[in-house]
Specification:
The structure is a single chain. The chain is of the alpha/beta class and 313 residues long. The chain folds into 2 domains: 4-164, P-loop containing nucleotide triphosphate hydrolases (Rossmann fold), CATH 3.40.50; 197-310. The protein has 15 helices and 5 strands. It has helices at 12-23, 41-53, 65-71, 90-101, 121-132, 152-155, 168-172, 179-185, 189-196, 198-216, 220-228, 232-250, 263-267, 274-292, 297-310, and strands at residues 30-34, 78-81, 109-113, 138-144, 159-162. Helix 5 links the parallel strand 3 (109-113) and strand 4. The structure holds zinc ion. Residues 54-56, 60-61, 63-64, 66-67 line the site of zinc ion.
Length: 313
């Protein structure tokens, strides 16, 4: 049993605004939560649903039957719409209309549309009327990265609430988290969780060792990275780390480095002209695009390796 809002990191002012509007009875019937992914917009939508549906005195109480059903995502008064495949299609809009036509059981009805930018025009159009004039106590929450990605007809009917990436302190929550993880997470707790995974830490080391070998022409680092990035995701992640490490190399000594724990090792790298460092970074970026385009992984790493110590000396 819990109040969902208590489990959300940061976004205190967004919650305050929503709470004030809800208490005063001025909560708009259509809201658009915007901001980068993995920072808590969806959780906030559920927390707001809990407050709207709570049967207790101090809403959300976190204790009543309704609060518990929302917490377990089993409330009949909340409808979650998410893309099935690459789009949110007309069927989803029909589901919304049907949901709104049912007899209302709780204090309100909440429709959360996650990744609302993927709603196709047909689906959005068939929702226009109910978004404009929803049945009493019905609320739409559209979740999108950027407000411009929401179809204009829905955008103009929604109050926009912007969510910002979390600060490093909010992300760390008083725990000791490695500095590179916080910097690489760019305000997203989902990304931070991915970095905290042990395998990801190994990929980062692998990318660093690969670069060290590529600069010196020593094959060992190449063989290791080829041996341990057989799946596409691992290869992609190591290409991303490679870019970050190369970026750090060009910024060495400025305090802007992401992987600051590699600083002293990087100081021992062979000398390269600044434009050569930038060129290496560009090649690592190209490698990531090529991996996404399914170019042969072995070929890409070998290319990067051989050209790093021959072309750019
Ligand atoms: Zn409650």
């Amino acid at each position: 049993m819990a109040r969902l809002i208590d489990e959300i990191l940061g976004h205190a002012s967004a919650w305050e605004q929503l709470e004030r509007q809800r208490r005063d009875g001025h909560l708009p019937h259509a809201l658009a939560f915007t901001g980068p992914s993995g920072i808590g917009k969806r959780r906030m939508a559920w927390a707001l649903a809990q407050a709207l549906l709570c049967e207790g005195e101090n809403k959300p109480c976190g204790q009543c039957g309704s609060c518990r059903r929302v917490e377990q995502q089993q409330s009949e008064s909340v409808l979650l719409i998410e893309p099935q495949g690459p789009q949110i299609k007309l069927e989803a809009a029909h589901q919304v209309l049907e949901f709104l036509s049912l007899r209302r059981l709780g204090a309100a009805r909440v429709i959360i549309v996650n990744e609302a930018q993927l709603m196709n025009a047909q689906a959005a159009n068939s929702l226009l009327k109910v978004v404009e004039e929803p049945p009493p106590n019905s609320y739409f929450i559209f979740i999108v990265p950027e407000i411009t990605q929401l179809l204009p007809t829905l955008r103009s009917r929604s109050q926009v609430l912007r969510f910002y990436p979390l600060s490093s302190a909010e992300l760390a929550q008083g725990e000791k988290v490695e500095a590179w993880m916080l910097k690489s997470a760019r305000g997203s707790f989902e990304r931070l969780a991915a970095f905290q995974d042990e395998e990801t830490g190994e990929l980062r080391q692998l990318a660093f060792d690969f670069l060290t070998s590529a600069l010196s022409g020593e094959r060992r680092g190449l063989e290791r990275i080829l041996g341990e990035t057989k799946d596409r995701e691992a290869a992609l992640q190591s290409a991303r780390f490679l870019q970050q490490i190369l970026r750090d190399w060009t910024l060495l000594g400025t305090g802007e480095e992401i992987h600051s724990d590699f600083k002293s090792a990087m100081a021992g790298f062979p000398e390269r002209l600044p434009r050569h460092k930038v060129e290496l970074w560009r090649r690592a970026q190209q490698m990531e695009s090529d991996l996404i385009g399914n170019v042969d992984r072995v070929l890409l790493f070998e290319n990067f390796f051989y050209r790093s110590h021959s072309d750019l000396r």
